[in-house]
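Hi C.,

You asked whether I'd gotten around to modeling the 271-residue construct. I have! Everything is below, sequence then structure, no commentary in between.
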Amino acid sequence: MQTPAAHRRELGAFLRARRERITPGQVGLPETGRRRTPGLRREELAVLAGISATWYTYLEQGRDIRTSDQVLGALARALRLDALERAHLFRLAGHAAAQSEEPEPLSAEAAAVPLLLQPNPAYIIGGTYDVLSHNQAAEELFPGLLAPDGRANFARWVFLEPAAREVLVDWEVEARGLLARLRTLAGRHPGDPRHTRLAEELSAGSVEARAWWPQYDVEARRGGRKRLRRPGGAVADFSYTAFHLAEAPEQTLVVYSETGPHPGRSSGRDQ
């Protein structure tokens, strides 16, 4: 199966970003003087992967060439990709089942779930982090989440809403993780205008998003813990769990549960 043009461009950019993050010393190559670009040269990576330098250059340039599982595996090993990055590489190369670019509508039954979970903050997000349903507790915990036009998008809130930097105590860690998860979802739908528009909007409005997006970090959606500043200024630890909807895997229910005030962080906004 030939890879569509959008997949090829995304594949080339991903390979280049990953090549540039590896130093010669990390793979046992000698450091030879000043380099014009960071990371490994194309020729060096090709040697490590056991493939033709010309062929690899064509691949990184987005040319229409075929790839095998064996070659992709060799590249993944040479680039030291983790399991998620390796899956991302194979998907971009057209070696994974394609998914529909059209989001499935949220059913009325699913939309009611966050309301049933009140007073625990809960919301359902789609593949581009549009908030498809949320309860009052979520709106209170994340002030400004609901835009004046009645729409909400969690990625826009994190990067473009000033209140997010107050609420998310570890803002940079949370923002980087969210952008990596968004990049993973965008990689499943290269050329999808929904993902393209969102990435452009975040990059235009946030210097951090503009700097981090080209780094091609990828991450899966999952549960975890966050330190959040509650209305009134007190910092509390929250655990959150993510559930993927069976009928629409890119739609995710996220439920928060407060685990108590954070030690030494409960006295207000000056912390």
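If it helps when you're writing up: Confidence is low (pLDDT under 50) at residues 97-102, 265-271.

Thanks,
B.
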